[in-house]
Specification:
mainly alpha
Length: 81
Amino acid sequence: KVGSAAVPTVGSIIHYIDACKPCAFLYTKGCQNGVDCKFCHLCEYGEKKRRQKMKKDHKRDQQQVVAGAYPMGTFMPAVPR
């Protein structure tokens, strides 16, 4: 049920299938949207920044593949999830 400890916000509903987006305000100035927040309140502190870094690293790795840094059939860094 939305509003419970297991699902504190509307955005937290999909947390358990790793499809949520962390609330940027929860750990800073506090989220003002309450239960109606479309972002997840279950993600740990730093999750938003971790995901941004992972996305940036993945994009860089893909650009290196396109640029020929990793010739076909050689090692390509795995993207952690």
